[in-house]
Design a protein that fits this description.
This is F-box domain, cyclin-like. The protein has 2 domains: 86 residues, no CATH class; 305 residues, no CATH class. The protein has 8 helices and 27 strands. Strands 1-27-26-25 form a 4-stranded antiparallel beta sheet, with no helix packed on it. Strands 2-3-4-5 form a 4-stranded antiparallel beta sheet, with no helix packed on it. It has a 4-stranded antiparallel beta sheet with strand order 6-7-10-11, with no helix packed on it. A hairpin with a 5-residue loop joins strand 17 and strand 18. Helix 4 runs parallel beside helix 7.
Length: 498
């Protein structure tokens, strides 16, 4: 016997009663209600209702912020699509499951010719942010980089650096020839892509085992093109170290850049037979002005004779030796503590943030200590005083996975609730108060180093074990997608939007 028509009367209730019922339903439940009948499908697809619920449940999202105060006819027509997109995205985030997974193969260390083409700078073995200064688990630095929806990675399918727009999935070749080079680091920052690389052959030898290779940096402006495309235009190239750098596991350099300046910190063991001291490595800091485009390529001019014809080529604007670093109290010595290296927005200073694990005095012992990050600002112009101040936030312990770009965790616990010492990588999207955290179990990770992924939104939090992002221990992304690398040399993208 057919059910009477009155069984679907919910859709025909007075507006006030209908809104009271809607208040008890989650966004994903509202979508499921459309399956009951045609009347319910029409009632729960009403754009006027859905746009109001969208503003109520997801006020922090970009979709809501772009809505006008008085809904236009165009927005009314798109009301159901907007609500379904946002509700679906946050339903997957709430469950900690991606809607789809994309994987891209990354280049091997050695190219098709058998020559090494990718050799990232090696991480430190010890760091002051760890208990007993011993790093519990190291992650090699990733050779891919992300900024504002743009992902640059070494594609195994193309054997080139590829820039991918994650909104459209369109890919663009970076005009950088890999053959005949060894890429050490790739970083996209401030709409400027910087590739640090070395020559494969040493141009002189320090001893029987260590040869010095000339190192360079090439920069590319990344700008929006036509038809949702991107233009990647070479800007300039510079030699980042005067004498070069050995390709070894002991010699390290870390860098950062803005759109106009580049800073590099160099840390090398002392190889002298007479003054060798494990606690007195050779340290220096250099800042370059890279603001002007230049056609001069120092890698093609070993003698430097053509440099005079290129006044706009990058130049050093500040240099600090180990005595200067000692004066500023930022010399790292044998137990480094540096975790962030930045150039200020006005390009007037370099900021170095150090993180030290300390133990409280006259209090109950804390098994993993407390973090104490301090930022030191060094002026680039003149001889002004340097400034030391407490860092606003908490840095996770150094594990080598993100070079000198460690991201701060929130102090109030709105995004990261796990103890600081178990965090491997952290991504915070502050405007919607959303975060992704790759971490160990906060209480058993010393014995069991299973890695977990925590996804926290303004209204939900979920934690699950994860094997897709343990290759480099690095995360990047937004509320729509999360990017990492697995142990099979694959770039993994969790999509929550489609």
């Amino acid at each position: 016997m057919a059910r009477p028509k009155e069984s679907h009367g919910l859709a025909f209730l007075p507006r006030e009663l209908f809104w009271m019922i809607l208040g008890y339903l989650e966004p994903n439940e509202l979508v499921r209600c459309r399956r009951v009948s045609r009347a319910w499908n029409e009632a729960f697809s009403n754009p006027a209702i859905l746009l109001a619920l969208l503003r109520k449940h997801f006020p922090w999202t970009k979709e809501v912020k772009t809505l006008s105060q008085e809904t236009s006819p165009e927005e009314q027509e798109q009301g159901r699509r907007l609500f379904d997109q946002v509700a679906s995205r946050y339903d997957y985030l709430k469950r900690g499951k991606p809607r789809s997974i994309q994987k891209y193969r990354l280049c091997d260390d050695f190219g098709g010719s058998g020559d090494r083409e990718w050799y990232q700078v090696q991480p430190w073995e010890s760091h002051a942010s760890h208990m007993r200064r011993f790093i519990d688990r190291q992650f090699s630095e990733a050779l891919w980089t992300f900024e504002d929806g743009l992902l640059v990675y070494p594609s195994a399918d193309h054997q080139f650096l590829v820039l991918m727009d994650l909104e459209t999935d369109r890919q663009f070749m970076v005009p950088f020839i890999i053959r005949g080079k060894i890429v050490r680091r790739v970083r996209l920052q401030k709409s400027l892509l910087v590739v640090e690389w070395a020559e494969p052959k040493a141009f002189h030898w320090l001893n029987d085992s260590d040869g010095v290779h000339r190192h360079f940096a090439s920069s590319f402006d990344v700008t929006r093109g036509e038809d949702q495309g991107w233009n990647i235009v070479p800007r300039n190239e510079w030699k980042i170290m005067f004498l070069g750098h050995p390709l070894s596991e002991r010699d390290r350099f870390f860098s950062s850049h803005s759109n106009t300046h580049y800073v590099i910190y160099i840390w090398q063991p002392n190889r002298s037979l007479y003054t060798a001291d494990e606690d007195a490595p050779i340290e220096s800091l250099f800042v370059w002005d890279i603001s002007k485009p230049s056609s001069y390529r120092p890698s093609l001019d070993p003698t430097g004779r053509l440099r005079d014809d290129s006044p706009d080529s990058p130049s050093i604007v500040a240099r600090f030796g180990f005595r200067d670093l000692e004066f500023f109290d930022i010399r790292q010595r044998g137990c480094p503590s540096i975790q962030r290296l930045e150039i200020t927005v006005d390009s007037q200073a370099v900021e170095i943030t150090e993180n030290v694990c300390i133990w409280p005095e006259d209090e109950a012992p804390e098994p993993f200590g407390f973090p104490r990050p301090i930022t030191t600002s060094i002026p680039l112009v003149g001889n002004g005083p340097h400034r030391r101040r407490d860092f606003d936030g908490i840095l996770p312990p150094y594990r080598g996975n993100c070079s000198m770009l460690a991201e701060s965790m929130r102090l109030d616990g709105c995004i990261m609730t796990d103890p600081w010492f178990g965090v491997i990588a952290h991504v915070a999207i502050l405007e919607p108060d959303l975060g992704f955290c790759l971490h160990f179990d906060p209480w058993t990770w010393v014995q069991d180093q299973t890695i977990y992924l925590t996804i926290q939104t303004p209204r939900s939090s979920v934690t699950c074990d994860n094997w897709d992002f343990v290759g480099r221990g690095k995360l990047a992304g937004s509320e729509k997608y999360l990017v990492g690398e697995n142990c099979n040399r694959e770039l993994v993208i969790y999509r929550f939007d489609r």
